[in-house]
Amino acid sequence: MSTGAANKPKSQQGRDTHVAKVIGVTVAAAVGGFLFGFDSSVVNGAVDSIGDHFELNHFMKGFSVAIALLGCALGAWFAGRLADIWGRKKVMLLGSALFTVSSIGTGLAFSVPDLLFWRVIGGLGIGIASVIAPAYIAEIAPATYRGALGSLQQLAITMGIFVALLSDALLADSAGSANNDLWFGIEAWRWMFIVGVVPALVYGVCALTIPESPRYLVGTNLDEEAARILTEVTGEADPLARVKEIRLTLKRESTVSIKDIRGPSFGLHPLVWVGIWIAVLQQFVGINAIFYYSTTLWQSVGFSESQSFKTSVITALINVVMTFGAILFVDRIGRRKLLLIGSVGMFFGLVMACIAFTQQIGSGDDITLPDEWGVVALIGANLFVVAFAATWGPVMWVMLGEMFPNRIRGVALGICTAVNWLANFTISLLFPELNDVLGLAWIYGFFAFCAFISWFYVHYKVPETKGMELEDMDSLGEVEAVLKEHGKL
After folding, report:
1. Lowest mean pLDDT segment, chosen from 104-113, 213-222, 284-293, 323-332
2. What whole-number distance in Å separates Cα of residue 241 and Cα of residue 401?
3. Is 243 a member of any domain?
4. Owning domain of residue 290
5. End-to-end CA distance of the chain
6. Measured between alpha carbons, how far is 34 from 163 in angstroms, rounded to an integer?
7. Is residue 159 pLDDT above 80, yes or no?
8. Is residue 241 part of a domain?
9. The model's pTM
10. What pLDDT sits at residue 456?
């Protein structure tokens, strides 16, 4: 009997094999995104228990959440440099090791300084993963599939968020409360961190199984190995010619530093500013106020602890499902159009939540929402998550991985990712205190304003990068030409 595969022409079978290999390698690299998402949200279920256990005020509670993001920013800043020196795989292993020890240390923390130290160590590992995964995927993936494959990074992030919130809910439910003892006399909130060892070790194993980036191999004069990987993994028809192209771009990258991205716009090249501002706006729409504090948020407006955990898990599941939309359409519709669509959806969802929170009844810790307004708040928050997950969540990482010319990609990507983490830090640090002082209506009004601004910024400043090979963007002059062609410079 013949099978469908046997009836296919050999050339088609070969293409299918290479597509499968590229997807497999991308999925393995994107496990770093899973760690990113897991770490981002595992604290969600533990933050109130941390505050109670260590007797933290609102500011210190926010700081205990946000301090990990300073480690993320630092890890992101140095990740590109380390990857150029050690190779992508070794830096992935470093990220795995840092997150492993951090998960154990945070779960067993005995004092506030101890807790903060391990949160920073974990942040370093996540910051490394947040840079290396999109950069590696952009370097290994053919232009035809790069947008969809790059979006797998965000899918992994959303899955990490979902698994973290689900595990938080299951652990809290098993113990009766996050504050109660679970196994071996250890509280449930501590186990929420300790289980992070599992994905951290999986990431390390995956890093050992994937091939090294061809661009790194060419940079270390391993041209034959780079050509072999290009042939076996991506199916490159003329790998030696591609190696020559990569080498030409690498020559321009030698001794690259901050001074190489200087330009006329407040000291930086306009394209770097584009990356910085989309990184800031992605965080200032408030996505992580939901994924770090959603359990606390829903409890603050009258939901029970169990209801709050379940609502957070449902929101995280919506986040995962909608990310598939970005994977399906990012290479068809284009990066820029998806960002514009997302800005509109986020704005309307945030406005709904803002209006609902103006109807709060009570003050201090005794706050509720009337039933009908609780429904409006839930719909608005989840509409926002739908719009973000299908657009800004994945597309920003796709663009940061591909929008810069090869000569400055490592430095520019490191800067933009570090800025993204610092913006995340700002929102995460201030949210509990501002919630106490101003209330949720003002906070979500600010998020809605940032979503409104994001539409205009993308419309007037952000170029389309769909379908462009990385080697086509081999000089700042060519990128400027692309921007001018689209009227963005």
Report:
1. 323-332
2. 23
3. no
4. 24-210+263-485
5. 60
6. 9
7. yes
8. no
9. 0.70
10. 93
